[in-house]
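Protein 1 of 2
SEQ + STRUCT:
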Amino acid sequence: MNLDRLFSGAAVIIDDHINEDDDLVRLIISEIETLGIPLVKYKSVPSSETINHFKNLSFIVLDWVFRPQEQESGDLIQGVKLSEQIKEHQHEEVIEFLHEIKKNCFCPVFIISNESTDDIERILIGAGLFDAQKPSQFLVKSKSDFRRENQETTDSVLFKSAEEWLRRVPSMYVLKEWEFEYQKSKNLLFSSFQKLSPYWPCILWENFGEDGSNNSQELGELVGRNIINRMESANLDNSIMEASHPNVEKSELRDVLEGEKFLQENVGASFQTGDVYKKESDESVIYYINIRPQCDLLRNSNPKLYCLPGKILIQKESNGKIDGISFSQGEFLEKNYHSIVPFIDKGKIIEFNFKEMEILTPEKLEEDGVIKIGRLLPPYITKIQQRFALYTQRLGLPKIPKQAYV
């Protein structure tokens, strides 16, 4: 595992002993700076305004308890324990900081403290930031353990622990490998286009405008496509990926499969191919999926939507099978008149019917109480579009008499 590669980028350390004769803090700072990693140091938890700038950090090293800054003025004598009230207030401050970090920058956070690691983990669990049974963004470790490990090895202490931790947290390992390739691809893209013309965004912007498109959305999609297509596949360590995989519950497996294909955050109010809508009543639940091509949607601020209605397919409790639907080699065997999408809207299996395609306006959807719940992503929405196109061009053939084959 190449730690220089995985932990490239700026780091932050937050510890009130930064400027003091603390051997462990000095050791950690020395390790980070020896690798040439830019390091920003804070003696207390930064303000929310500062946290807003923590977008692309490599990692954070965080103490858990901070002495009041007035101590330097003689208000608190060195060695005197903080009151429980002050500690509780600081815990709340640190917890709020960690919640802000999760929103602004998904990166490793090494919580290294003299406090009890069990107490810290208990507080993190209570705040919904930690699960003792699952890998986490946060590594909690005591300073005494770090000091002992420093005496037992001549290797680096922080990064030795970081490497062991990454091997147990596959999401962080994949994030770090992916970030490296992404940054390289992003820089290559903008450098290449800059050579073509320093005005390339303006040229494309004008072209999108003449085409009647949503300029901002089109330019964003162009940048995204070019970055992805310039990226090399991260060379992931098979031993880490396999060793980290436990036996997961069916519900968790479905959640992951849903997250892979169905976007529920930041879908916005714009109309896009793959948007999924839902209408609930006491009698039934109806879904709609918009299959109209994106180019038509972009050129009209109030477009008509080509919607396929959908219904929930119910699995039998005894064997998980669905009446009238066959399953083989990892996929549902679909008829020519429908498409089946597992799993969306909290693990449901939805059948979308080609026969009943409706052309609906946004006003009609709103009037009928239909709400957008997410967006089906490519290649799944592309498959539905292609199958619908084949359905509209199918040839009608006479039925085979039942007596001919029974």
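Protein 2 of 2
SEQ + STRUCT:
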Amino acid sequence: MSRSFPRMLAIVAVAVCALLGPAAVATAEAAPQHPRSSARWRACTTHLDGVRTWIARTQRSVTIVNQTSRSHARVSFWVRTHSRCSLSRLFLTRSGRIGYGGTVAATKRRQGSGTTPLGTFTMTEAFGNGPAPKVWLPYHRVRTGDYWVGDNASRYYNSLRNKKSGGFRYWLPSSRANSSEYLPSYGRQYRYSVVINFNRAPQSRVRYRGTGIFLHVKGRGATAGCVAVTAAQMRTVLAHLKPGDRITIAR
């Protein structure tokens, strides 16, 4: 091969770029680092922040909650790249909050215990006390009369329901075992919330095991069983989370 051939290729490349303009270069560079889906993805098991977790073939993101004390945890959020089972971390916080009662095996949790269930759960919907941010999940803007049903006698147990629709005893005080959570009362914490599918479809639902386990914005202390991070981190999660993506809670 002539020594001048590589130089000739370089000259041709420059000429092509000059003809096509900067738009062609920009298009090549704009390929997303975190595609919403990819034919290259495969189901796999990996370790993220020291936690072993299984990833479904179509799963885009992984949220890892790694308990560090009774009511604190490291929370990290990972999103897949184009590779078979490669993920990049978008954030890691060492000041995530969990339940004031610590963690417990999901099958042993009891309603009102203030514990965060251990295990891996899907996330398929979101809600918030405000307009939707950039989000892939179905999003419900909280309105007056919205409750998260904790009434064990209701067919709507562990779901969002407005009192005008009936079907649960919304009037029960918070001191009662079958009370429901009035969502507008938590303007800051529930500004951005993702429902963790603990004790609800598509997993099994058991009465008195507990309701309303969410990933939401931090308040001033421990949660009643949810996982909490900052508002900015919640916006990052919502901007990448696909319906069916999983969260793993471990200790």
